[in-house]
Specification:
The chain has ten helices and twelve strands. The chain has about 325 residues and is an alpha/beta fold. It has one domain (about 5-125, about 130-310): NADP-dependent oxidoreductase domain (TIM Barrel). InterPro entries: AKR, AKR1A, Aldo/ket_reductase_CS, NAD(P)_OxRdtase_dom_sf, NADP_OxRdtase_dom. Keywords: Cell membrane, Cytoplasm, Membrane, NADP, Oxidoreductase.
C-alpha cells in the first residue's frame, strides 16, 4: 500500500497528514515541528481553526532556501470558511490564509462546508437569540470563484469538505477544475462506505477527518462510546502489537482513504505515522467494518425544547439530510 494517494490533478498527497483542528495556539507550532521532524509531509489547516499563523511559523523553520525541505516536498491543505462564500470574498480569504501560513500557494484549498453564513468578519455571525445568520449564496457560485484561485496559481487544486454525494455531483456538473478531494468525518463508527464508493466512481479522493473518532471533541457526552476503547479493536491491536489508533489508521489506508489525525503529543504524532509496516487481514478489515453504526460525532448541535438537535439542519444546503 503506497504512502501516497494520487489525486485526479496528478498531485501526490501523503496518506497520513497532521490535523490541526482543536490544536490551541501555543501548542500547534510545536505539533507541526514534531510532525515535520518525524517525517510528516502533509499538514491540514483551515482559516476557521484560528491557528494558521502559528502553523506558518513552524513551516518557516523547515521550508525554504537553506532549510531542510523544499516547498514542493510538503503538501499543505487549507479551507475557505462559511462566511467567505460570496464570490467577491473568496480570493481575499485565500490570500489571508497564505499570508498567515507564509506561503505563496497551498496544494489544496477546500470549501469547508456547503453552507454559507452571512458574510463579515465574525466566524459565527449570530442573531440576538443565538441562532446563526445564514446566507443563501449557492456553493456552485462559491466554487466558480475558487476555480479562479487555481488559474492565478494561489492554489494547486480545489476540493470539498462535508459535501454529500448529490452536492459533490452538483459541483462536478459545473466545474472547470474538478474537485480532487472530499474531506469528511470518517472512522469505524461512521465508515462512509456509500459516500466513499460514490466519490471513487466520480474520481474524487476521500480524506477522513476525525479518523480516530475525535475523543476530545468539546461536545462529547460521557454516555457516548469512545472508539479508541472499543473492545473489538483491542483484540486486533493485541494481535498486531499496535495501538488501537494505529489499527484504525491502517484500516483507513487499506481502504484508500487519506487521514489527518490530530495530536499535539510528539510520541502520538510519531506513532500515527508508524502504520506502513504491517497489514490488516480481510477478517480484521471486516470486523472493523462491522463496528459501523452511522454515528456522526462532529455535527454541531444545540439544545431545543430539552433535546439536542443539529444546529444547521435548517440551512438549505445542510448536507446530512441525505443518506450519504
Amino acid at each position: 500500500m503506497s504512502s501516497f494517494v494520487t489525486l485526479s490533478s496528478g498531485q501526490r498527497m501523503p496518506m497520513v497528514g497532521l490535523g490541526t483542528w482543536k490544536s490551541s495556539p501555543g501548542q500547534v507550532k510545536q505539533a507541526v515541528l514534531a510532525a515535520l521532524e518525524c517525517g510528516y509531509r502533509h499538514i491540514d489547516c483551515a482559516a476557521a481553526y484560528g491557528n494558521e499563523q502559528e502553523v506558518g511559523e513552524a513551516l518557516a523553520l523547515w521550508i525554504g532556501p537553506g532549510k531542510a525541505l523544499r516547498r514542493e516536498e510538503v503538501f499543505v491543505t487549507s479551507k475557505l470558511w462559511n462566511t467567505k462564500h460570496e464570490p467577491q470574498d473568496v480570493e481575499e480569504a485565500c490570500r489571508t490564509t497564505l499570508a498567515h501560513l507564509g506561503l505563496s500557494y497551498v496544494d489544496l484549498y477546500l470549501m469547508h462546508w456547503p453552507m454559507a453564513f452571512q458574510r463579515g468578519q465574525e466566524l459565527m455571525p449570530r442573531r440576538a437569540d443565538g441562532s446563526i445568520r445564514y446566507s443563501d449564496t449557492h456553493y456552485r457560485d462559491t466554487w466558480r470563484a475558487m476555480e479562479s484561485l487555481v488559474d492565478k496559481g494561489l492554489v494547486k487544486a480545489v476540493g470539498l469538505s462535508n459535501f454529500n454525494a448529490r452536492q459533490t455531483d452538483d459541483v462536478i456538473s459545473i466545474a472547470r477544475h474538478k474537485p480532487v478531494v472530499n474531506q469528511v468525518e470518517c472512522h469505524p463508527y461512521l465508515s462512509q462506505t456509500d459516500l466513499l464508493s460514490h466519490c471513487r466512481s466520480v474520481g474524487v479522493s476521500v480524506t477522513a477527518y476525525s479518523p480516530l473518532g475525535s475523543g476530545d471533541r468539546p461536545w462529547a457526552s460521557p454516555d457516548q462510546p469512545c472508539l479508541l476503547e472499543d473492545s473489538r479493536l483491542a483484540a486486533i491491536s493485541q494481535r498486531h502489537q499496535k495501538t488501537p489508533a494505529q489499527i484504525i489508521l491502517r484500516w483507513h489506508i487499506q481502504r484508500g482513504v487519506a487521514c489527518i489525525p490530530k495530536s499535539v503529543t510528539p510520541s502520538r504524532i510519531q506513532q500515527n505515522l508508524e502504520v506502513f509496516d504491517f497489514s490488516l487481514s480481510q477478517e480484521d478489515m471486516k470486523l472493523i467494518e462491522s463496528i459501523n453504526c452511522n454515528e456522526r460525532l462532529i455535527v454541531p448541535t444545540v439544545e431545543r425544547d430539552g433535546k439536542k438537535v443539529w444546529r444547521d439542519a435548517g440551512h438549505p444546503h445542510f448536507p446530512f439530510h441525505d443518506a450519504y
